[in-house]
Amino acid sequence: MITVSPGARITSSAQPDWRQLWRDAVTDSRELLDLLDLGHLADRLPAADAGFALRVPRGFVARMRKGDANDPLLLQVLPQLLELEQVPGFVMDAVGDLASREAQGVLHKYQGRALLIASGSCAINCRYCFRRHFPYGDEMAAAGQWRQALEHVRQDKSINELILSGGDPLALATSKLEELSHGLAGLPHITRLRIHTRLPVVLPERIDAPFIEWLRSLPLQKVVVLHANHANEFDEAVDGACASLRDAGATLLNQSVLLRGVNDDASSLTALSERMFAAGVLPYYLHQLDRVQGAAHFEVSDDRAHGLVEAMRGCLPGYLVPKLVREVGGDPSKRPL
Ligand SMILES: *Cc1c(COP(=O)(O)O)cnc(C)c1O
Ligand code: SF4
């Protein structure tokens, strides 16, 4: 639709550019609270951000409930005083990433799959993020420099699936992704490309026409693993992004993190599975929290986690029940609980 207002230039209500929306994200806790009519809570904010700033796209803020300090989307992004507590067992490198590094930006932990740290940036900063302390500056595979990573993958013919992760790999410009796919053209043992991304959920505008064209053109099997933790994270724009991804030939899965106060009840988890399936997405993993410093207040006990998944099994078809797992450094796979 084209709208023309008197004296103004012609503007199109087609999707705004995702980079602009990325830059426009809310980065100030007080502003976020004001937008949600929660300004009176500002004195409960930590004075410092514990080295991990607030960042949340405005479209995601629009899905939060106004006036609700316990909104499940808000709790995922708002810095809290609790983060500053040192809790024994909650450490900087919670999943042994640094031990599994095989080349710059390449993590190779599991048979057949190599994971590339394709970007250190995310459109959103999730407070529970297991990589909040990751030394991205040293470890980026990409920023357009795929050479070392591709060389590693070329030499190891046991790898058939390349996983783009981060940070968020779709933080990269589509032209950078094209450079990667050109590099992959000479590696016939790579048959699958998997993308781990939260962007279709938190900034669905990223799934624009050039990106979809790129994805569709890949002569590989394509899997996109989304990351949503609550049914309220889905809206029409997210549905549209998911539909485009499926049209481009991608299988859509979702991984969630079990988070105290956000989704640690059977009805939230059930609603999440139902809602994602309505968007054409199947649940994959439900992760027990990685024990990363500053995230202890989100932890749910294994016993409770078990009970929640059993409750889901009691009211959902089997394909809508995610696998409950924990990542343990040194294990040959994610560990089922
Ligand atoms: C989680 C992870 C994978 C993918 O594991 P799947 O069980 O296949 O989803 C691959 N490599 C690394 C380093 C990982 O952390
Ligand atoms: S999108 Fe993923 S990698 Fe980025 S901050 Fe959130 S949990 Fe961490």
UniProtKB/TrEMBL annotation:
CDD domains: Radical_SAM. Its cofactor is [4Fe-4S] cluster; pyridoxal 5'-phosphate. InterPro entries: Aldolase_TIM, EpmB, Lys_aminomutase/Glu_NH3_mut, rSAM, rSAM_sf. Pfam families: Fer4_12 (PF13353). It catalyses: L-lysine = D-beta-lysine. Residues 108-331 form the Radical SAM core domain. Keywords: 4Fe-4S, Iron, Iron-sulfur, Isomerase, Metal-binding, Pyridoxal phosphate, S-adenosyl-L-methionine. Belongs to the radical SAM superfamily. KamA family. This is L-lysine 2,3-aminomutase. The lineage of its organism: Bacteria, Pseudomonadati, Pseudomonadota, Gammaproteobacteria, Lysobacterales. The gene is epmB.
